Amino acid sequence: KQTELVRSKETAAKTARELECQLEINAELEAQVATLTDEKKQSEAELSKQGQSFSKLTRAHQTKTDTVDRLESELSRVSEAKRCREADVARMKETLTRMNRDCQAHTSEVSRLEAEVARLLEEQRAKSRNLAQLQSGNSRMAGECDSKQQQILELQDTVSRCSEEKRVREVDITRLKETGARLAAESEAGCCRIRELEADLEGMREELRTKARLIASLEGSAQDTEGQCQMYQSDLGRVCLLYTSPSPRDS
């Protein structure tokens, strides 16, 4: 019994030493688990922050994309308005050229009519002189004189009407010139606006390319962080804290 008691004491001491060693190992494992847990929490917090930054960058990217689409639609609209203005200017120029030709034709017609009136007046004066000399043919010459006078009146009316039309055409030409100048100024302003919009669009495209590269780098960092978290979780799964003390009866 004394021998068994000594042996039991030795076994108990050995078991106590093994228990102390196992407790130390368990304390180290618990410290490692706490460290891994803290690292996991930090990684999750960093991953959450990166996810929020990624969401913000995605929203900013979407906003920039919408802005670029809106600017492209505005650029298309301004280009279409520019083409319409250029077509209007070309049409106005054609109308102005046609009216200039018409005005020149009316001027030539007025000059011709004035020359005809001068010739008729000269003929009337000659007829009047002949009428004074030839009293015998008074009735016939009076009829011719009345006819010539009627022609002169008609020609004078035609000259007056042509002069009035000429003044109207000149007013129209002046107004068309002013309209053409205004349209040319508006077209130049539209061209300046288009150049500004193209410069803004190019800057936004460059910013979008920069944001895309930043998003790609953040996605790579997020994948690396996720891989580390999976590795920590697999390490935690391998840690075992199970301990079974030997029984004195086993000896």
Q: In a nutshell, what does this entry contain?
A:
With 251 residues, the chain is mostly helical.
Characterization of the model:
This protein is mainly α. It has helices at residues 2-133, 138-238.
Largest sheet: none
Number of strands: 0
Helix content bin: over 70%
Determine the structural class based on helices, strands and strand pairing: mainly alpha
Could you tell me the radius of gyration in angstroms? Answer: 54 Å
Given the structure, what is the number of helices?
Answer: 2
- N- to C-terminal distance: 14 Å
Shape call: rod-shaped
Order of helices and strands: HH
Low-confidence stretches: none
Strand content: under 5%
The oligomeric state is single chain
Rounded mean pLDDT is 78
Keywords, please?
251 residues, mainly alpha
Describe the protein's topology:
Elements: H1 2-133, H2 138-238
Helix pairs in contact: 1-2
